[in-house]
Write a structure and sequence with these properties.
heterodimer; A: 222 residues; mainly alpha; MetI-like fold; 0% strand; globular; B: 279 residues; alpha/beta; D-Maltodextrin-Binding Protein, domain 2; 2 domains; five-stranded mixed β-sheet; 13 strands; SBP_3_CS (chain B); Solute-binding_3/MltF_N (chain B); Glutamate transport system substrate-binding protein (chain B)
């Protein structure tokens, strides 16, 4: 029944999906944490930037962001991320850039809700023993905040995994593009869609279960 | 307990939905195959391919549209009884199977996989994968494409051909639409846009691009455009074949090619013989 898949690199495509997810996930986590720090910082300019970034980026459709990375950044401004003559690598890097810029906004908001769960007394006590803002954030508030938002961050990661299919719009050879290719030639619409859907469930279901278990283990008991 | 109730409810709703669709199908099948009269005919075309099938402010234009209109007339429908329906590449087989459209003329290349699911009348046009290059470009016949920067639509047959056979080492930029590729071609970031020459000719013939681009004239593949009909509908297939033969015989075919694809210097193949598929 599935012999029409012959000649298609299904595993390779999903491997690209995994790579996109991992790279974008790491960058988004770092950038999102910095953004969250900005949004709770005492400097008005940084707060303003963080708020503006989150509200602009999370309200633009991801497809627009990804296509802008390719048509806008690469084509018009010539920002090719170190791969001007290799469209494959360039597309991959641009997709990682777009995905992480977009996902960071959601990481930031998840993390900020985590920061709000840390009792105000914690920050006050930290200030009272003479820690500066950076120390309060990194030593006292963020470690507790992270432990309470593992669940929401797992949601963001699962959404990111599925969002990688948007990279097909600029020709990154991931699972979404492979689906387009198979559907174009094989005339097996439903079977193809089912296989790709199953692939994503195989990727995201364990992620969700594992991170859910971690979240329960590390949660701060109050 | 609650869960079980919900489960039973879901199952019954599903069962209802299934039986309902089954009824719908039966009705449609009864209706198809009947001819002319006061009824309208639904024909699947592309809405977004200039020169082939395009939705314009005052109706539809393109070679596929002209062919479909001619065929429908031969089947006994007048022009205002034709209802054009958009059938993107991925939907074509299902649209025929479900009876959403009577037949499809939408740059529909005949291939083995598709022939298993639908029947084809025609072919009515032999197209080739080709390159669209800048008017002053020196890419011509026999050029090695490896190392060139090409652009095509993500997932399309042409893009897959480039990756698998024509030039696996070429830089292939895959984009959402041909228009995005044209931007890159006009801006100089890519060397050539590649897909069927008939489609390329349609784009190059658009007013804003006239004179800027030309077809390289490479015959990189053979695409036999056929008219798709529901599998097993031999009666309709034969009628469409007769209509196509007539269209070629009385010169309407040649006229439609010249009108829709001519302005870009497209050198069309002679009208293909019905049932002869060039591999």
């Amino acid at each position: 029944m599935f012999d029409f898949l012959e000649g298609y690199d299904l595993l390779g495509a999903f491997w690209t999906t995994v790579q996109l997810t991992v790279f974008s996930g790491i960058i988004a986590l770092v950038w999102g944490t910095i953004l969250a720090g900005m949004r709770v910082s005492p400097v008005p300019l940084m707060r303003g930037f963080g708020t503006a970034y989150v509200n602009v980026v999370r309200n633009i459709p991801l497809t627009v962001i990804i296509v802008f990375c390719s048509l806008g950044l690469a084509e018009i401004f010539g920002i090719t991320l170190g791969a001007p003559n290799d469209f494959k690598l360039q597309g991959f890097r641009l997709a990682v850039l777009g995905l992480s810029a977009y996902t960071a906004a959601f990481v930031c908001e998840a993390l900020r809700s985590g920061i709000n769960t840390v009792p105000i007394g914690q920050a006050e006590a930290a200030r009272a023993i003479g820690l500066n803002f950076r120390q309060v954030l990194t030593l006292v508030v963020l470690p507790q905040a992270f432990r309470s938002v593992v669940g929401p961050l797992a949601n963001v990661l699962i959404a990111l995994t599925k969002n990688t299919t948007v990279a097909a719009a600029i020709g990154v050879a991931e699972a979404g593009l492979l689906m387009k290719e198979i559907v174009e030639t094989e005339a097996q619409l439903y079977a193809t869609a089912a296989i790709i859907a199953l692939g994503f469930v195989i990727l995201t279901l364990p992620t969700g279960l594992f991170l859910g278990w971690i979240g329960k283990r590390v949660a701060v008991k109050r | 307990m609650k869960l079980r109730k919900a489960g039973i409810a879901t199952v019954s709703v599903l069962a209802l939905a299934l039986t309902a669709t089954a009824c719908g199908d039966d009705k449609k099948e009864g209706g198809s195959g009947s001819e002319g009269g006061g009824k309208s005919i639904k024909i699947g075309i592309k809405f977004d391919q200039p020169g082939i099938g395009q939705k314009t402010p005052d109706g539809f234009a393109g070679f596929d549209v002209d062919v479909a209109t001619f065929v429908a007339k031969e089947l006994g429908y007048s022009e205002d009884q034709i209802e054009f329906v958009q059938t993107p590449s991925a939907d074509r087989e299902n649209a025929l199977k479900n009876g959403d459209v009577e037949f499809i003329a939408a740059s529909y290349s005949i291939n083995d996989e598709r022939e298993k699911l639908v029947d084809f009348a025609g072919p009515y046009l032999l197209a080739h994968q080709d390159l669209l290059v800048k008017a002053d470009s020196d890419i011509a016949e026999g050029t090695d494409l490896n190392g060139k920067k090409l652009c095509s639509v993500a997932g399309s047959t042409s893009a897959q051909n480039v990756k698998k056979e024509i030039a696996p080492k070429a830089q292939l930029q895959e984009r959402g639409t041909y228009s995005e590729c044209l931007e890159g071609l006009a801006g100089g970031s890519i060397d050539a846009l590649t897909t069927d020459d008939s489609i390329l000719a349609g784009y190059a013939a658009q007013d804003q691009y006239k004179g800027k681009f030309k077809l390289a004239g490479l015959k990189l593949s053979n695409e036999n455009y056929g008219i798709g009909v529901k599998e097993g509908n031999k009666d309709l297939k034969d009628k469409i074949n007769k209509a196509l033969e007539k269209m070629v015989a009385d010169g309407a075919w040649e006229e439609a090619v010249k009108k829709n694809l001519g302005p870009a210097g497209y050198k069309n193949e002679p009208a293909p013989k019905i049932g002869v598929i060039v591999k």
